[in-house]
Each structure stands twice: as C-alpha cells, then as structure tokens.
Write a structure and sequence with these properties.
Layout (H helix, E strand, L loop, with lengths): L8 H8 L3 H22 L10 H22 L4 H21 L6 H11 L4 H9 L8 H16 L3 H12 L4 H8 L3 H20 L18
Helix pairs in contact: 1-2, 2-3, 2-4, 3-4, 6-7, 8-10, 9-10
C-alpha cells in the first residue's frame, strides 16, 4: 500500500473491535480509494446517472450495520472488508438500475461477476490521467477510444490485477487476498498483465511509450 494511504494503527485496531467512531474516521481516510474502486467498476450504462461518491457514502451505512459481525471474525484486513462491503453496495446499485431480478439465481451470479468487473472506459480514463491535457478534448477522446479498444483485447483477470495494483493502490499481499490466490501467483499475474498491456500499446502508435505503470521494471 502507498505510504500516504497508511492509516493509524490505533484507529484500525479500535474499528476492528467494533468502535464506530474509529470506523467513521477510517472511512474518511479511505474514501478516495473506495471511490476509485467504484469508479473503475461502475457499469458504463450508469455513468452520468450514478455518482460514485454517492455509492461510497451509502456504503457507510452498510459498514456500520455489519461492523459487529466483522469485529467477531475479522476474517480479512479491515480495509479489504470495507472495500468488500462497498463492492456489495455497488452490486445492489447495478441490480436496482439495470433491473436484475433478486430471485433469478443465474442472473444474480452474472450480475455479481459483472458488477466487480473493471470497466474498460473507466480504466482508460485512469490511464490517461496526467498524460493528455483535459483542455484538448478531441485528442483526449481519441486516445480514450484507442485505449478502450486496447483494453478490450485483454483478459478480465489481467485488467483486474492492473486496476488493483495501480489504481486502487493495493500491495501484492492485499491483491492476493482479493483475488483468492497466493502472493506468488498474484505477483506473476501482475508481471504478465503489464507485459501484455505494453505489447498491446506498442501496436498503437498513438499510445506507444506514453504510459508507464508501477512495476514496469518489476513487481513488488
């Protein structure tokens, strides 16, 4: 995890024990990262209709309600639990707006997979951040389209690990927990994903050499 995102240990300990005030402070601390997670996974059909900030704020109600159960088990690190609960809130938003029926088990499974999938358009915006001046709308839009097409050629698991490590600022251990794989497997997947993305970008003259992600030389 990035150093500037490290939360005070005493707050983490207190919240893990069920202290709602500590949870509220941590929620404010982690709000930007939770918002990034939602923005990356918000269905493109809902962009402009649903504000990621609202999804994150609504998730705080869920966090407070589920804190007692978490404090008893503490099965995963606190931030990853907050991220999980926020993701569940996003799934409910998708269900509400996209009209998935609650009792349709097959559609529910599909929705869950889709709700947590990285949206190529949102990921393209993250990649473009800091590279093209926002004032040059035409150039930015063209590059975003090229990037979206490039990302569509990547496997979902490759986009996911890049999003986790580069945009959500999860370290290798955290990414492994989220993906349910070993730390070694997460590290290898990240290296392969970066190489694959770079190969694709090299095939697009407009994008070649413009992007450099954390871990281009090595994964942590």
């Amino acid at each position: 995890m990035c150093e500037d995102e490290t939360a005070p240990d005493h707050l983490i300990g207190a919240a893990a024990q069920g202290n709602e005030e500590a949870l509220a402070e941590l929620f404010e601390h982690f709000r930007p990262r939770l918002k990034t997670m939602v923005r990356l996974r918000l269905d493109h059909r809902l962009q402009g209709r649903v504000d990621p900030s609202d999804v994150v704020q609504e998730s705080f109600i869920d966090l407070v309600r589920e804190l007692p159960a978490y404090s008893q088990k503490q099965a995963i690190p606190l931030f990853l639990w907050m991220r999980l609960v926020t993701g569940q809130r996003l799934m409910r938003v998708h269900r509400e707006y996209l009209g998935t029926k609650k009792r349709d088990a097959s559609r529910e499974i599909s929705l869950q997979a889709h709700a947590l999938q990285v949206d190529p358009g949102s990921m393209a915006e993250q990649l473009l951040a800091g590279t093209t001046s926002p004032s040059n709308a035409a150039v930015r839009a063209e590059k975003r389209d090229h990037l979206r097409q490039a990302l569509d050629r990547m496997k979902a698991c490759d986009k996911e690990i890049i999003a986790l490590r580069n945009f959500e600022n999860l370290d290798n251990v955290e990414a492994a927990v989220v993906l349910g794989i070993s730390e070694s497997a997460a590290s290898k997947r990240y290296v392969r994903a970066l190489k694959r993305l770079q190969q694709i970008l090299c095939e697009i003259p407009e994008l070649d050499q413009e992007f450099r992600l954390r871990g281009d030389d090595q994964a942590e």
